[in-house]
Amino acid sequence: MRWLLEFEIMPELDAQTFLKKDVKDMRTTLEQRKKQYRAIYELLFGTPRIYKKDIWALLELNDRTVAKRLKEAFEDQYIIGPDIRKRSYSNLREYMYFVNCENPEIAYLEYREDKNKNIIYHSQMSGFCDLLIIAKEKIDVEGDIILEGPRSDYYTSYAPNHSWVRALEIMRKMIEEFDPRDYILRKYIQTHFDESVEWDEKYELLYKYFKYDLRKPFAPVMRKGVSGSKLYKFLEKLPETCTTATSYYPDTLLAYDHYLYMFETDYEDFLIDLFSELPPTTSFFKVSNKLFMSAHIAKTYVDISDLTTDISRHYISPLIVELLRKKIVKKKKHAIAMYFKGRSL
Question: Which of 212, 175, 160 is nearest to 343 (CA)?
Fold first, then answer.
């Protein structure tokens, strides 16, 4: 992975050239722009800090158009990230709590107002739990704790470039053809609970700075007392210390409902391969022996009128029923995120 500077010097262009570019850009349809957002996502997924001039060259677009598409893609939330999350080393681990409580709205607001700096993220859920809390250290939690423990590393899918209908057809075929005798353990999800890694206050400062945007410029964080050598060492070691993810949402993030699935399974890597066929980015992690999937699903493909068992229909639910029938999944529960404090899991 290359670590590249954010700053670019744009060539001077005369007013007539700018005018021509603006007129041409006005003729670009939404469908054409979406293809450009997709192409940008693919480049960022492979090289998070890719030079803007390399994007110009690879997409065969001029500098002004690329700058505009980048701005649109991020502001409209077709693309999120690239962001980073700590791996599960003993000195970096984070704890997750899945909790039921009597008044989840009140509990959510109390946690929102809590000044406890150990709490990284919390969300009010509707489903198998009322609250999800992520903390840097073990904390006291009120309510009925369904599950708690350190989380694994995250695993994030590469969003495939196909439609929902095509995705569901591929998934249906994968389930129909699944044979446990052919299952291969790929170990997509890693844990490092018994290991430690080099980490100090400067690394923590850099982590917080880049956590939600790895493309940030270097200058602001270097003004906080981080040397160039420390910065580059942090970036060099980043694949070892953190996971990196660039997320893609073909119809923008707000077009989907955010589901959190909890699975008990002996075939976790098959499930990860299966649900990685969904068009938006999907993330996976484990707490204890449970596999969790954070998925963004379009309302169109969630059948709320009836629980159909016909897997030829283009809905998520029949596929999950078939996973249960074939005992690929032993147990499954899910919840929908209602409110949250913290930018993302």
Answer: 212
The rounded distance, in Å, linking the Cα atoms of 246 and 80 is 6
- Asked if 73 contacts 41 with a C-beta cutoff of 8 angstroms, the reply is yes
Q: 257, 215, 221: which is closest to 74 by C-alpha?
A: 215
Give pTM, 2 decimals: 0.87
Phi first, then psi: give them for residue 146, nearest 5 degrees. -75, -40
pLDDT in tens, 107-124: 888 887 776 678 888 899
131-135 β-sheet, strand order? 144-150, 95-100, 131-135, 119-127, 329-341, 256-265, 290-298, 283-287, 155-156
206 contact partners, CB below 8 Å, separation of at least 6: 221, 226, 230, 231, 234
pLDDT digits (tens, 9 = 90+) for 277-323: 999 999 999 999 999 999 999 888 775 555 555 655 667 888 999 99
Q: Which amino acid is at 7?
A: F
Determine what percent of the chain falls in helix, strand and coil, rounding each to the nearest 5. Answer: 35, 25, 40
As a whole number of angstroms, the distance between CA 171 and CA 164 comes to 10
- What is the Cα–Cα distance from 257 to 141, expressed in whole angstroms? 27
Q: What is the largest CA-CA distance in the chain?
A: 66
